[in-house]
Structure formats: C-alpha cells, structure tokens
C-alpha cells in the first residue's frame, strides 16, 4: 500500500484534475521514487505521468487549466511544509497527449509539465528514456489501463547515451559550480550531487534504474575511497543523524571528488 501522505496528495490532485480538466485525464501513473518503493514520508516528492485525451479544452485554454491544476496543490503543500519544516509530497507531473504514448519516448511532444513551483509549457524533463523505463517496468496505474496497454517505447538502445549526455551536461556543470565555491556545502547539495550521478552510472553499467539510496549502496561498493561522503549523502537522504566523519568543512571537496570519479569512469563503460 502507498504511504498515507501519497494517497492523500494523489486523491486531492485527481479531484482538482476532474474539476479543472473534466473528462480529459485518460491515465495517471506513479513513477520516480514512489514507484521504486523508495518514498520517504515528510521528505520525498511524488512524480506522475498524466495522459490527456482530446476534449473541449485545447491550446491556450488547456494550458491555463493545467497551470491552475499546478497551483491548486499549493495550500496542501505549504501546510505540510509548515508542519514538517520541509516541502514534500509535491506532485510533479508531465502531461502527454494520449495519441503520443506509443511513440518512441524521445519523439514524444509533451503538452506541459510542472516541477516544484515551476510550470513548463511544451516541455517535460521526465519524458525521457530513464523515466519511461520506470514507467514501463514499475509504473503504478492510478487511473487508466495498466502501463503495458500503452505499448510504451522507452528506447532502451538510447538508455546509455542519454545517461552519458546527462552526466556530461548537467552533472559536469554542477561539478564545476561546486569546485568554484568556497563556503561549506549545504546538506541538500551533498545529497543531490553525490547520489544523482551514481544513479546514472548504475544505469549505464547495469541497465537498471535504482533509487537514490540503492545508488548510494552501489557507489559505496564501487568507489570505496569515497564511501564516507556517500554514507553522509545516504544519511541526509534518510533524515538520519549525519556521521561525524567526514567533517562538514570537507563536504565540498569530497563531493567534487566523487562526482569527478563517477563522471570520468562512466565514459569508459560499454557504449550502446
């Protein structure tokens, strides 16, 4: 069974969807950490793929309603943040037209998406080979048919190249920013920048999509010299006490070191 706060958030989101885009939500699927069994109450977000059917709402009118749907969850999210002092259980959603669900994932043209406080018209980062692999293998249907009914094409032959490009682009830029900084690294930055690249490395090496904590365990075995900072990232992810070693003043350097190792080694792994 899904965690209670996930069930509550999803029920509220679907009610708002039925009010704002009545009859046009043909499917809704859980992906991300929740689908991987790694949701952390009070800490995680909720990632969804929403399939939209044709209907009276189109074009700019539909986008306005999707923006309103995004904003409708703000009171619930803010109330939760006041209780826990951390934003969590935010529904991050990618909207895909029903007629495009059978396309190869890199050819899909999403209608829109929202992530955190941001709304994107005509774009959705989660429409990519990694998330489509999760959707096909472990996606949880909240509305609509089982994921197998959509004849999804995650383009598994592009899984390695997509992850490599993400490491060389976004994560290399993140590494450069960390190297350029001088102040102690924030805890969330350690968690994000240590575990994120490890997830991609694991997918390149094994073809599997791991949760952040699973990627941390994988990284501690593979990159023993960086085990301490990876352990710190896993503790931060879990909301557990942070080990005294390494000290916080070393977090920035150690985070940069493990990121560099992961990005560099990923280049040597087998190609598609």
UniProtKB/TrEMBL annotation:
Transmembrane spans: none
Domain Polymerase nucleotidyl transferase: 26-55
UniProt superkingdom: Bacteria
Example GO molecular function: nucleotidyltransferase activity
One Pfam family from the record: NTP_transf_2
Organism: Candidatus Ruania gallistercoris
Annotated protein name in UniProt: Nucleotidyltransferase domain-containing protein
């Amino acid at each position: 069974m899904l965690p209670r706060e996930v069930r509550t958030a999803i029920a509220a989101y679907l009610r708002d969807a039925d009010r704002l885009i009545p009859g046009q939500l043909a499917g809704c699927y859980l992906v991300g950490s929740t689908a991987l069994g790694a949701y952390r109450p009070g800490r995680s977000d909720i990632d969804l793929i929403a399939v939209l059917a044709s209907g009276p709402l189109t074009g700019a009118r539909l986008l306005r309603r999707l923006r309103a749907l995004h904003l409708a969850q703000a009171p619930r999210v803010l109330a939760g943040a006041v209780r826990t002092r951390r934003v969590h259980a935010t529904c991050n959603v990618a909207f895909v037209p029903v007629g495009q669900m059978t396309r190869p994932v890199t050819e899909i043209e999403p209608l829109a998406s929202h992530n955190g406080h941001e709304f994107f018209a005509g774009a959705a980062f989660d429409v990519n080979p990694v998330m489509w692999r999760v959707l096909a293998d472990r996606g949880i249907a909240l509305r609509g048919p089982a994921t197998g009914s959509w004849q999804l094409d995650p383009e598994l032959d592009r899984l390695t190249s997509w992850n490599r490009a993400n490491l060389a682009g976004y994560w290399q830029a993140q590494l450069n920013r960390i190297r350029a900084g001088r102040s102690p690294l924030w805890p969330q930055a350690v968690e994000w920048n240590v575990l994120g690249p490890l997830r991609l490395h694991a997918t390149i090496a094994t073809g599997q999509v791991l949760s952040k904590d699973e990627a941390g365990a994988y990284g501690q075995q593979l990159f023993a010299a960086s085990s301490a900072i990876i352990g710190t990232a896993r503790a931060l992810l879990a909301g557990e006490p942070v080990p005294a070693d390494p000290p916080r003043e070393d977090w920035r350097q150690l985070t940069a070191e493990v990121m560099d190792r992961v990005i560099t080694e990923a280049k040597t792994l087998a190609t598609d």
